[in-house]
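Ticket reopened. Same input as before:
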Amino acid sequence: MPWTTVEVEKQDKFIIEDEDQSGRVISYKDALYEALDQSLERDSRVFVMGEGIDDIAGVFGTTRGLHEKYGGHRVFDTPIAENSLTGIAAGAAMAGLRPILVHARMDFLLLSFDQLVNHASKWSYMTGGEVSVPLVVRTISARGWGSGAQHSQCIQGMLMNVPGLKIAVPATPYDAKGLLVSSIIDNNPVLFVEHRWLYKTMGKVPDTLYSIPFGKGVVRRKGSDVTIAAISYMVIEALKAAQKLETENISVEVIDLRTIKPIDEDIIIESLAKTGRLIISDTGAKTGGAASEIAAIVAEKALDHLKKPITRVCCPDTPTPTSDVLEKAYYPDAETICNAVRELLK
Amino acid sequence: MVLDRDKLLDLYRIMLSIRKVELKIDSEYKKDEMKTPIHLSIGQEAVSAGVCINLDREDYVFGTHRSHAQYIAKGGDIKKMIAELYLRKTGCSFGRGGSMHLLAPEVGILGSTAIVGGSIPIGTGAALASKIAGDGKVTAVFFGDGAVDEGTFHESLNFAALKKLPVVYICENNEYAINSHHTSRHPKDNIYRWAEGYGMPSYQIDGNDVVKVTEYSGNAIDRCRAGEGPTFLECMTYRWKGHIGTVNDVGEGQRAQEEYDYWLSRCPIRWYANYLYDIGLLNKANENTINSEIDSMVNEAFDFAVKSPKPEARELMDFVYAR
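Engineering reply: fixed in the latest deploy. New output:
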C-alpha cells in the first residue's frame, strides 16, 4: 500500500451526524470529486490543473477520470513549477476563466508565495477593483507514516495575514463540496485547505450544487462547560473528545469554523458567553498561527466572558518529526484535547 | 511585411508620445507631487511601439515596473496614467497602484507588476485562457534582461512551449538590472538562446529599430493567431535614465560616458524620423503638426491629473476584495 494511504486507511470511518441535513452519506473525498465534476459541467470557464492530476491516482481520487470526461484542455497535468503555475492560473483568472490549481501537498504551496501573495492576492487592490482573480488553490495536508518535515505541514495560519486572500478549511463532506463550490464561484483568490485524514470522513451530501457562505462557522455539537473552536481535521478530534468527555459528565461545545479568512467571530463569542472557557485547536504550529489569531480576537472583544485563560491545542513549534514515536509526541489528538478540557475545569 | 502610410506615421506618433510624456514626467518629478517611484523608458520607445502596433485592441499586454511605454503604445488613456502617477482618484488604478501598476482593461492591459519576472507567468496564464476559451486573442509579455534571471522566466517559457500558447515574450535587454550589467549576471551574451532551448522561435534584434521590431513581432503575432505557439524576441536597447526616478547614472563608478554617448547617438526616434523623411512620409509641416498635437495632449493630461481629487482616507479598505 502506498505510504500516503496507510494512515488514512487505518482511520475509522468517522460519520458526521446531522439530522437537519438531507442527502446521501458519502465521503469527503467523493464530495470533493462531486464539486469538481458538477462545477466543470456547469461552467465552461472552470478548469483544473496540477502536478499529476490526470494520473491513475487522480489526487487521492478527487480528480480521477475528469480529464476523460471534460477533455485534456480543461483537466490537465503540469510541469513541476508551483510558483509559475500559480501565476499562470492567476493570469487565466484575470482573463476571465475560473482556474483550480491543485497542490497534492500543502508544503509545495510554499514555492508559490510570490505569485499567491505578491500577485494574486493583491491584484484587486492594486488595480482599484478593476481586475479580479477568481482563483482556487487546493492544498492537501498529510499526517503520519513518517511524512516528515516537508510532507505534512499545515501552514494556513501563515497566510491569514495576507490581505486579499480567503481561506476555507472544510472538515465535513457537506462542507467540502459546498465550500469548494463557493470558492469556485467567488471572485477572489481562495486557498482551499484539505486534510488527508478527512478523506474517509462520511456525511450527508446533497447531490445538487450548493454553496456555503464564507465567514459562517457552525456549532457541530452543543455543550455548556467548554467551547472548542476547531479547524480542519481537528474538528474530528474535538468531536471524538466531546463524545468521550460526555461519559465524564463534561459538556463540550464544538465549533467548526469552516473558513478562517474571513473568520466567524460571533459564533465563538456567543459560545464563550455560555461556557466561559475556550480551547482553540488547529492542525498547524502553535505560534503565530490561526489559533493565535482567534485568541487575539477573543482577548480584544470578549475578555470578560473568560473564566479561565485560553488554551491552544496545536502542533508544537518544531518541524514535523519522522519517527513514529516522535510523531505520537508531536500530534495533538482527542486525548490531548480531553486533557486540556479537564485541566480547564479543575 | 508592408505597413501602410497611416501605420508608419502612427509608429512615429506613438514613440514621440512616449518620449514627450516621459520628458514631462522627468521635468515635473522634482516638484515631489508624484509621490511614487517611477521608472522611465526614454531610449526604449521603439520596442513597445513596434510590438503594440500589431496588436488588436482586445489583445493582452502585461508589463513591469517600467511600463509607461507599453501603456501608451497599447492605447491606454494618458490622462488616467498621469493621474495615477499623481495618485489621484481619477488614475487608472484609482491611486492604489502608482507608476508600477498601470492598467487599462479596456485595451487589454490587465495590470503590471513590480516584482521582477512576476508578469511572465501571469501573461502566460492569460494566453492559456485564450487557448482554452478559443477567443483568438494574443498576449504580449514585456520584461527586462533582469527578469530572465528569475525561475518564472524559465518555468513559464517551458509551459507556453509545451501548451503552444498564443504568447509573445519580449525581453527589452537594456543591459542593466539597476546597476548590474547583464554580462555580470549571465555566462553568455545571448538570452534568446535560452528561449530557443524551450523549443520556440527566438530572435535577437535591434530594439531601437522600430521597423525591425514591428516586422518580427508582427510575424510572432501571426504565428500565435495561426495556433503555432509562442515566440521570443530579445530586443537590444538602452535606457537613457538611471534605474529609478530621474537620476542620471553615468560617469565615475557607473555607466561609462562612451557607452552612454553611443546609445544616445542611436536614438530610436531620431533614426525613425530620418527614415520617414527619406521615404517621403514626414516633412517639416506634418512633423510640426504631430509635435504640437502631442504637446497639447501631454499638457492636457498633466493638467487633468493635478486638478483631480485624491482618494479619501475613508476609502482605505476599498478593493481589498473583489465584489
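Residues 218-344 of chain A form a domain with the Rossmann fold fold (CATH 3.40.50.920). Chain A is about 35% helix and 20% strand. Please confirm and we'll close it.
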